[in-house]
Amino acid sequence: MDPEAFADAFDVPRGTLDRLARYADLLTEWQGRMNLVGPSTLDDIWGRHFADSAQLARLVPKSAAWLDIGAGGGFPGLVLAAMSWGRFTLVESIAKKCRFLEAVRDALALDNVAIINARVEELPTLGVDVATARAAAPLDVLLDWGIRHVRPGGLYVFPKGRRWAEEVDAARTKFSFELETFPSMTDQDARILIARNLKRR
Question: Is CB count within 10 Å lower at the N or C end of the chain?
Answer without folding.
Answer: C
